[in-house]
Design brief:
- Helices cover 48% and strands 20% of the residues.
- It has a 5-stranded antiparallel β-sheet.
- The chain has 10 helices and 9 strands.
- With 264 residues, the protein is α+β, with helices and mostly antiparallel strands.
Length: 264
């Protein structure tokens, strides 16, 4: 039996798996890594579609609605792994886009090697839970760092506007944040902040703020199961619980209460 006190634990893992159609309107309860080996698959994150050719992969965060299926006549074989643990939430905070990380085929060898290491350690008898946890952490850490590397954080607009905006929203997500006030703090127009944010992060500041607020709400709903919904809403930056419920359902496909029941 796995040591549940370890910071990162592997739930499911495999390779050369012939992948079929999967639809998860409510997302998956844990981090899920999927990488094409042969064939090609289509992967939707909400309404955005990505084609996963051989070598390409995606890490999808917990609770993010998604679906995927093989394309064409050739079977789609994949590597996969799912993870949970106390360090996983910390790794998610390092992701600029906290919903998913997309890996291009040119970077495939790094993640194939890390996944093989994980499979090898899982195959040892008796199992070394600590070594397995270390291998899982290395894979997740590389994936979250990869996303940061694909965003040019040394670009002047990121350093001067986008980075500080992200840091402020993460630190003050429970407060009443106006994007126009945030832009004023950074001495730029709202239009300019929207433009550079979208160019560098592929989201508007409002979309990013909603994303991190709902992500925070998910954690509260699961980790503090007796916390009232109106308190979860308030601690996630929503003064109106009814509006919070509407936003939460739009983002996840379920109400906050149903999400809590589903996760616990």
């Amino acid at each position: 039996m796995a040591d549940l006190s370890l910071p990162v634990m592997v739930e499911h893992v495999g390779a050369e798996w012939q992948q079929g159609v999967i639809i998860r309107y409510q997302g998956f309860p844990h981090f899920h890594w999927l990488q094409s080996q042969t064939g090609t698959g289509a992967f939707w994150v909400r309404d955005k579609r990505y084609e996963l050719a051989p070598g390409m992969g995606i890490l999808i965060a917990p609770g993010v609605p998604h679906r995927y299926e093989p394309l064409g006549n050739e079977p789609w074989h994949v590597r996969f792994a799912t993870f949970q643990g106390s360090l996983v939430d910390d790794l998610q905070k390092q992701m600029v886009n906290s919903e998913f990380v997309l890996i291009e085929a040119r970077d495939a060898p790094v993640y194939e090697r890390l996944h093989e290491t994980l499979l090898t350690r899982l195959g040892h008898e008796p199992a070394d839970d600590l070594a397995i946890s270390v291998a899982a952490y290395q894979l997740l850490l590389c994936l979250t760092r990869h996303q940061k590397q694909t965003i040019d954080q040394h670009q002047p607009d990121f350093q001067q506007y986008v980075g500080p905006a992200i840091a402020y929203m993460q630190e003050h997500l429970a407060e009443d944040i106006s994007i126009s006030q945030l832009a004023a703090m950074l001495s730029v127009s709202t239009q300019y902040l929207n433009r550079v944010f979208n160019r560098l992060v592929q989201q508007t500041p409002s979309e990013y703020l909603t994303q991190i607020r709902i992500s925070h709400a998910k954690k509260l709903l699961v980790s503090q199961k007796y916390l009232k919904i109106n308190v979860v809403a308030e601690q996630s930056g929503y003064a109106d619980p009814a509006y919070f419920g509407k936003v939460f359902k739009k983002q996840t496909g379920v109400s906050p209460l149903n999400y809590r029941h589903w996760q616990t």
